[in-house]
Write a structure and sequence with these properties.
Layout (H helix, E strand, L loop, with lengths): L12 H4 L31 H4 L5 H22 L1
């Protein structure tokens, strides 16, 4: 059985956004990922194909740091 996608109404963003939202904070849940993040951490969303290459955030950070240090070393050579 095929899924049939409903056509999106042709509304502008202005029509879709309300000038005011009222949130029921009594129904709010704590962030389940907050314990994994320490001070000064910024969350970045990777595309699925990029995320599939890495097994952990430590490996992503290690590669990015090596790229940064290589870039800085190249700049020093060019000066």
């Amino acid at each position: 059985m095929k899924r049939v996608l409903a056509k999106k109404d042709e509304r502008t963003e202005q029509e879709e956004l309300s000038p005011e939202y009222r949130f029921d904070y009594n129904r709010a849940k704590p962030n389940r990922f907050a314990g994994r993040m320490s001070g000064g951490v910024i969350a970045v969303v990777l595309d699925p194909d990029v995320a599939a290459v890495f097994k952990s955030s430590k490996r992503v950070n290690r590669l990015l740091r090596s790229m940064i240090s290589g870039r800085n070393a190249k700049r020093k050579l060019l000066k």
